[in-house]
Design goal:
Layout lengths: L9 H27 L6 H5 E6 L2 E6 L4 H6 L9 H11 L5
Antiparallel strand pairs: 1-2
Helix pairs in contact: 1-4
């Protein structure tokens, strides 16, 4: 009988294997969010990026006031460009 013993660094190997695809997906989310974001100053759109760091692969806004665009405030409606873009992209990966 043959036994399978995973490599001790299997998580790191798997992460490195899929990181390029995840970065492409995060980039698509950031591009879609930028296209859907309010255009008043364009600062929020320019702040959207996809990156790989100690958190993993992420699509994020580095605008210090980006949370107000995403979630809204007492004076502004929530636009939610990142959440909508992520939902649109994730829909492609759902099984049919």
């Amino acid at each position: 009988m043959t036994r399978f013993a995973p490599a001790p660094n299997i998580d790191a190997l798997a992460t490195e294997d899929v990181a390029p695809q995840l970065l492409n997906t995060a980039g698509e989310i950031a591009r879609r969010a930028a296209a859907d974001a309010p255009k008043r100053t364009g600062r929020y759109s320019r702040s959207l990026k996809a990156t790989k760091d100690d958190r993993g692969v992420v699509a994020e806004s580095i605008d210090p006031f980006g949370h107000l665009v995403e979630s809204g405030s007492i004076n502004n409606q929530p636009y939610s460009p990142l959440r909508r873009a992520a939902s649109d992209v994730a829909e492609r990966f759902e099984p049919t």
